[in-house]
Design brief:
With 441 residues, the protein is of the alpha+beta class. It contains 15 helices and 12 strands. The radius of gyration is 23 Å and the shape is globular.
Length: 441
């Protein structure tokens, strides 16, 4: 039962949540009336559960009618307009390279967009215009966070907090003999810190990141160049050319969170040529809890590059390369949108020209085994995205990600919904889910 204060907070939160939902053009996740009848397709059950898991404290019936309204608003007002935008952006290229006429593309994209309320950009992202029946196999952007929250709600929150807190994660990783990157220094939030306080010494440089942030927001590296310190922002690729710029970056990071200083690790020689920007190449391995033991769902390599736009401002882009789970071989054509973005296609060609077509991720077996060991250590979480950097002497586990994005792994490994249903059996009662957490390998 609600306490009085909780009830007041709940009432006050309703206008804010409704305002957010009504500003979105589409429902939360896929929506079709057939989802609410009797059916035997477990993919439909998944999408329906995700949609209702996003409602929070809003009554289920009210949430249904809200999604029903958003679905019809999307179909009547947005689907055709958004489809035409994507046809203008991608249609000519697809027609020339895949032989699908623009008229046929529009018909297929619009039909899917109206039927399930899928944004046309995602229809192109996953090439669903070629196979409309596979649409239910995918988890879409509006579903990612509700799915994570739904699956992690079965845990007691201890592992969730430990992975989100990078300092605590490092402590537990060391205790579990996981090869994590050491923390050189910990600065408290709003602490008065400048460049002279950062323990760079004679190292190749350091990397400074927030203690609890995600997506690398605010993180940056510092290196010496011609006797001077220079840095680069991770998220945007912007250079920090002076001590003043670096001090400002430190201040900005500490304004909202603690900061951790780690050594800047160099890429293994087999991979280093892939990044012309000389930035860290990340190997992401996604592990999930199955009924009996952790399994690896997907693995891919993230190759950063810095590009300059028309306004001469720098920005970071990433090229994905799949990693074969058995051999560790780096694979072409991981990006489903790759051929629709010329700069990514050119970047992929350059990467494989530099590293070769048969390159294998160094220490691959060790990375796989340790990722599974890490999943067992944090078994209260249903799935974790592990970020690795491979140095010349060994691989280092940078961090785990609780709310890992689902678009990129699906570009690499295909639709996640079918994989979840088939391999990990997530459609059991909450009692079975809690029991699953206690399983050991």
């Amino acid at each position: 039962m609600f306490k009085a204060n909780d009830f007041i907070i709940y009432l006050l939160s309703i206008p804010r949540k409704l305002g957010y939902l009504l500003r979105q053009p589409d429902p939360v996740g896929l929506f079709h009336l057939s989802f609410f009848g009797k059916n035997k397709d477990p993919r439909i059950e998944l999408h329906r559960k995700i949609m209702f898991s996003a409602r929070g404290r809003i009554p289920a019936l009210a949430w249904f009618f809200l999604q029903y309204y958003l679905a019809w608003r999307w179909r009547l007002l947005f689907a055709s307009v958004e489809t035409d935008k994507m046809i203008k952006r991608f249609g000519t290229h697809v027609a020339a390279n895949e032989g699908i006429a623009i008229e046929d593309q529009r018909e297929a994209v619009l039909a899917l967009s109206r039927r399930f309320c899928i944004r046309p950009h995602d229809v192109y992202r996953f090439r669903l215009y070629r196979d409309a029946d596979s649409a239910l196999d995918y988890i879409f952007p509006r579903e990612s966070m509700p799915l994570h929250r739904m699956q992690n709600s079965y845990s007691d929150g201890v592992d969730h907090g430990a992975v989100q807190d990078k300092l605590e994660f490092a402590r537990r990783a060391v205790a579990a003999n996981l090869p994590s990157v050491p923390t050189l220094r910990h600065f408290a939030k709003r602490e008065n810190v400048n460049l002279s306080d950062v323990p760079i010494g004679d190292s190749e440089g350091v990397f400074i990141k927030s203690r609890t942030g995600f997506r690398g927001m605010g993180a940056f590296s510092i290196q010496t160049q011609d006797g001077n310190f220079v840095g680069r922002m991770l998220e945007t690729g912007r250079r920090l050319d002076s001590e003043t710029d670096i001090n400002s970056a430190i201040t900005d990071l500490l304004r909202d969170d603690d900061a951790l200083v780690q050594p800047l690790l160099a890429n293994h020689a087999a991979l280093s040529k892939a990044s012309a920007a000389n930035q860290a190449i990340i190997i992401r391995v996604i592990t999930v809890q199955s009924k009996q033991r952790p399994k690896v769902y997907s693995a891919y390599m993230r190759v950063p590059a810095v590009v300059k736009g028309l306004s001469n401002t720098s920005s970071n882009i990433e090229m994905l390369a799949g990693v074969d789970l058995v051999s560790g071989r780096i694979l072409r054509n991981a990006n489903s949108l790759l051929n629709l973005n010329p700069h990514l296609s050119l970047l992929e060609a350059n990467v494989f020209e530099m590293i070769g077509e048969d390159t294998v991720v160094p220490f691959w077996d060790e990375i796989l085994e340790t990722s599974l060991a890490a999943q067992r250590e944090f078994s209260g979480l249903w799935g974790i995205g592990w970020d690795w950097i491979v140095s010349q002497d060994k691989p280092y586990l940078l961090e785990g990600n609780v709310y890992w994005g689902m678009q990129k792994p699906q570009e690499v490994s295909g639709g996640m919904a079918a994989a979840l249903i088939d391999r990990f059996d997530l459609f059991r009662t909450s009692q079975n889910m809690r029991a699953m957490e206690k399983l050991v390998d």
